[in-house]
Design goal:
The strands form four sheets. Strands 1, 2, 3, 4, 12, 13, 14, 17, 18, 20, 21 and 24 form a twelve-stranded mixed β-sheet that branches. A five-stranded mixed β-sheet has the order 7-6-10-5-11, with helices on both faces. A five-stranded antiparallel β-sheet has the order 15-16-19-23-22, with no helix packed on it. It has 464 residues and is of the alpha+beta class. The relative contact order is 0.13. It is built from eleven helices and 24 strands.
């Protein structure tokens, strides 16, 4: 009997050891099979990042490409990567100031303002045609009879936007240096098309927004991105600006140094991936990236100072005081209002409210959709760059919408959501009034907000 017990004990112990070895092997195998990238070190916080994009000339191509680039960077860094698309370059700067966005893909002039305003630091510069710089161009119709910059005097002109380096800043400096006349006196009239490709198309068509257009400024050569057949035959370049440092990838102030370095290395690695060329050709036409110092953008600062340009943003601004409270009213491109009402005592001192619109709602969870209302709302103590945290009491937010914007969604599910850094979270005080077509809430914090609703579920059609 003792011999039997001894043998049983030995067998039991051997089996236990064997099972332990198998378990350790399986755990090790799983760890190897599911190994996380080394950059996702739990000692480094945070383990997610948020990027902001701007200058979306062709949303049909660029918006999907932005998401694909975010996924590519996520694979290379091991971080969860989220992305947003600002409605204008200035709004991107405001989002980095509010720390809603950790990194930005910024044009040169936008970066210079971001560095001055929010201590944003450039990390990587774009490479195109093997060069880290590019030029702006002056384009006219081939049959216009306009052959030199001087021939544009007294004509109507198109710029992309008032924070474009190659399409606005450098062209107006070039006009001043070449003709001795400020651009607003040089042209009969000028307007902004909200995009470089739109400038090329406006010159080709000879009109924009019912205004006759004789010439325009854009980056070199924006015509390659135009869908118009024969655009190269029907238009021509009559002059170029000085060379400009390319747009860049920049980091907001206050990031963990190791984390920031990991992200930058991840973008550099992403540029070596075969998917990079296709994604960036649709997004910004970047061929590659390389490290760069802030001093590379000194010529842009000089041009800005020469032109006397001041920071301009599409963000809506308003002052709120401790004793009287305040309000902000933003009217979007659809002529729909978003109203912010802050009561007295909600803030300390005087605070500047800033509502920075987004062009598109991104990172939407499965089963939900957006209705084109998204913005970053922040408060900054007047005279500083200090962003306030929570409020002493709630404020009221009311967002109007058109019923057509809720098509495909359950209208009674519409609610205001706020971005918690990794996902959209419903504001618990949110209410929808389907009769008045408004969504309202009384939050006690500023954040990135969007109106989302659940998708309608359609039963399959049954036929006999």
């Amino acid at each position: 009997m003792k011999k039997f017990l001894l043998i049983s004990s030995v067998l039991w112990l051997s089996t236990a050891i064997l099972l332990l070895v198998v378990f350790i092997f399986q755990v090790g195998a799983r760890r190897v099979a599911n190994a996380e990238p080394i950059m996702n070190d739990p000692a480094v916080t945070p383990t997610s990042m948020t990027m902001v994009f701007t200058n979306m000339d062709d949303p049909q191509q660029t918006v999907p490409a932005a998401g694909e680039l975010a996924d590519l960077v996520a694979e290379e860094t091991g971080y969860d990567v989220y992305h947003f698309i600002a409605a204008c370059p200035g709004a991107a700067v405001d989002m980095m100031l509010s720390e809603t966005a950790d990194f930005g893909w910024l044009p040169a002039l936008t970066y210079v303002f971001a560095h001055d305003i929010a201590d944003v630091q450039v990390e990587l510069v774009a490479v195109r045609s093997g060069q880290p710089n590019y030029r702006g161009q002056f384009v006219v119709r081939t049959d216009s009879g306009i052959n030199t910059l001087a021939d544009l005097a007294g004509k109507n002109f198109a710029f992309p936007n008032n924070l474009s380096t190659s399409g606005y800043l450098y062209p107006i400096v070039h006009i001043k240096k070449t003709t001795g006349v400020d651009y607003d006196l040089f042209f009969n009239d000028y307007l902004f098309t909200s995009g470089h490709i739109a400038v090329v198309d406006a010159v080709y068509n000879g009109t924009f927004d019912s205004t006759i257009i004789h010439g325009g400024a854009s980056f070199e050569d924006a015509r390659t991105a135009s869908d118009i057949p024969g655009v190269f035959e029907e238009t021509k370049i009559i002059d170029y600006t000085d060379w400009i440092p390319n747009d860049n990838f920049s980091a907001r102030a206050g990031l963990d140094e190791t984390y920031q370095e990991n992200v930058v290395n991840g973008v550099l690695s992403a540029a070596n991936r075969p998917e990079w060329a296709d994604i960036m050709s649709r997004l910004y036409a970047w061929e590659d990236v390389q490290p760069v110092n802030d001093s590379a953008y000194d010529p842009v600062r000089d041009a800005r100072d020469y032109a006397g340009l001041e920071y301009i943003t599409c963000s809506e601004l308003s002052n709120v005081t401790e004793s009287g409270g305040g309000s902000l009213l933003f009217i979007d491109d659809n002529e729909l209002p978003t109203s912010i009402q802050v009561p007295a005592g909600a803030v300390t001192g005087t605070v500047q409210l800033s509502l920075s619109p987004l062009s598109f709602i991104t990172n939407i969870p499965d089963g939900y959709g957006g209705i084109a209302h998204a913005f970053d709302l922040m408060g900054i103590y007047t005279g500083t760059n200090q962003v306030i945290g929570g409020l002493a009491q709630p404020y009221t937010m009311t967002i109007d919408y058109y019923p057509s914007q809720a098509n495909g969604l359950n209208e009674d599910s519409l609610a205001i959501y706020w971005w918690n850094g990794t996902s959209w979270q419903m504001e618990p005080t949110s209410q929808v009034d389907a009769t008045a077509n408004t969504v309202s809430a009384t939050p006690d914090h500023f954040s990135l907000f969007a109106v989302l609703g659940s998708n309608k579920t359609y039963l399959p059609q049954v036929t006999k």
